[in-house]
Specification:
A six-stranded mixed β-sheet has the order 5-4-8-7-6-9. A three-stranded mixed β-sheet has the order 1-3-2, covered by helices on one side. Strands 10-11 form a two-stranded antiparallel sheet. Helices cover 41% and strands 12% of the residues. A hairpin with a 4-residue loop joins strand 2 and strand 3. The protein has 472 residues and is α+β, with helices and mostly antiparallel strands. It folds into four domains: 58 residues, lambda repressor-like DNA-binding domains (434 Repressor (Amino-terminal Domain), Orthogonal Bundle); 72 residues, no CATH class; 153 residues, Orthogonal Bundle (Arc Repressor Mutant, subunit A), CATH 1.10.10; 134 residues, no CATH class.
Length: 472
């Protein structure tokens, strides 16, 4: 396979500026000319192996940090936005979009914000019946969408909270299955908060209630042990690390107070997950158990969803894990959680590809199913999927059902126990999947729901195939 050229001008410039060096001084330490460095910083030349090694040796740069994961997901989002019929005319060619992403990412983000505003404006015009109810509505992204994109572009890794969570985890004692009790003891001794199982959190739909005046944290006693531990750690984050959380949300520059509030919850959740699954121990265990989800969950007293989500966050500089994508999908195909440290990026609008095995997981509950898949760009993945059920308690209570998707590029398959008996070398073993029908350009997909955007339809009245239309 031909190696992908790495253009990392913006990141190289950032490293130089962090060390307070001129181009001449920086080039001298790398052993290259100033003119060559200038070309690298302006993405006129790709980064060669000797330069990568010099960056790693002289400035302790993790070479993986220059791989462009952030650029890949930004390019995917930009390509999807330009495919929208809102924009008439020719779509800019791929190389031009890459230059925008590499050299002016702020422009790319601004364009995506404009695209979201236009979509929402169009949706409101198309729903005139709801005009009165929508009076005063904003065209900015919703708070949840804005926060989702925030985590998306920081690679779902927050170092300040991750390291603090790891320190807290090191102080806890007792078996993995009793972390809730250990955390309850800690929050009582360290912060004067008493944990009650029941109380004000015993009502319908209540999971956690905190009374700041009485310093009582009430938890629903029906919650499983991993969830109880998670909610206690979440409250610890809001009490002990409120300053760090506020600093992160302020730096993010959200458009609204609602988005900042949503982000605070997300960051507290991040801290909680990192406390139950501390980075170093979790990464070591995941590697030793070859990423067997059930064994890892058993080792840490965690849920499968907690383990799968945590695997997608192992992006600590200098100590990265296998890059995974992770998603949670409901029965209607809506992606309620998403993150990808791989080149596979989830569609921001519309449903996921129907050929993806995450949909099949609902047919075989409580089993981990596998799929070898290939996206239109030729990249191959090992995809895992399983279902999770969250009961409301009692026969008449509602039950939440989701499918979890976890996967990595097939080049990492040897590190996963799930690939041991799969024929990853056989071309026919890979199912063709896409991001979504509106973006996928495969011509002969039997599950295609709609034609791809910005492609002229080809209709033949004298013929009928599985899909009733063709396209250029």
């Amino acid at each position: 396979m031909r190696a992908r050229k790495v253009f990392a001008g913006r990141k190289i410039r950032s490293i130089r500026q962090q060390h307070g060096l001129t181009q001449a001084a920086f080039a001298g330490q790398l052993g290259i000319s100033t003119s060559y460095l200038n070309q690298l910083e302006n993405n006129q030349r790709h980064v060669t192996a000797p330069v990568l090694l010099a960056l790693a040796d002289v400035f302790a740069v993790d070479i993986k940090d220059l791989s462009g994961n952030e650029d890949d997901r930004l390019l995917a989002d930009l390509s999807e936005a330009f495919a929208d019929p809102l924009f008439t005319g020719d779509t800019p060619p791929g190389p031009d979009l890459k230059l925008v992403v590499q050299n002016t990412p702020a422009v790319a983000h601004a364009f995506l914000s404009m695209h979201q505003a236009l979509r929402r404006a169009g949706e409101r015009l198309a729903e005139l019946d709801d005009t009165l109810e929508r009076t005063g509505a904003q065209t900015d992204p919703t708070p949840y969408e804005e926060v989702r994109d925030f985590f998306h572009y920081i690679d779902n890794y927050v170092d300040a909270l991750d390291t603090e969570a790891e320190k807290l985890a090191a102080t806890l004692s007792g078996p993995p299955g009793e972390k809730a009790r250990a955390l309850a003891d800690h929050i009582d001794k360290a912060h004067g908060v008493r944990v009650v199982f029941g109380g004000t959190a015993a009502g319908d739909g209540a999971l956690r209630r905190f009374d700041a005046a009485s310093r009582v944290l009430s938890l629903n006693p029906r919650l499983p042990q991993p969830s109880l531990a998670f909610h206690i750690a979440h409250q610890i984050a809001l009490i002990a690390h409120s300053g760090e959380i506020d600093a992160i949300t302020t730096k993010a520059g959200f458009r609204s107070a609602d988005a900042a509030a949503v982000c605070r919850i997300g960051l507290a959740n991040y801290f909680a997950g990192a406390t139950l699954l501390p980075y170093g121990a979790f990464l070591e265990t995941a590697r030793a158990l070859r990423h067997d989800l059930e064994l890892i969950a058993e080792r840490f007293g965690a849920s499968i969803e907690q383990v799968a989500h945590r695997l997608s966050t192992l992006q600590r500089p200098g100590l990265k894990g296998v890059p995974f994508f992770f998603a949670r999908v409901d029965q209607a195909g809506n992606i309620t959680k998403r993150h990808s440290a791989t080149k596979l990026q989830f569609a921001r609008f519309g449903s996921a590809c129907p050929l993806w095995n995450v949909h099949t997981a609902f047919e075989t509950p409580n089993r981990i199913i596998r799929q070898l898949a290939e996206t239109p760009d030729g990249i191959r993945y090992l995809c895992l999927a399983t279902t999770v059920t969250k009961s409301g308690g009692g026969f008449a209570k509602p039950v939440q059902r989701y499918a979890l998707a976890l996967g990595c590029e097939v080049r990492h398959a040897a590190e996963l126990v799930y690939a041991d008996d799969l024929d990853t070398a056989r071309d026919g073993a890979y199912a063709p999947i896409g991001i979504s029908c509106r973006l996928c350009e495969r011509h002969h997909c039997h599950q295609r729901a709609v034609p791809p955007l910005k492609h002229a339809l080809f209709i033949d009245e004298a013929a009928r195939d599985t899909v009733p239309f063709g396209f250029e």
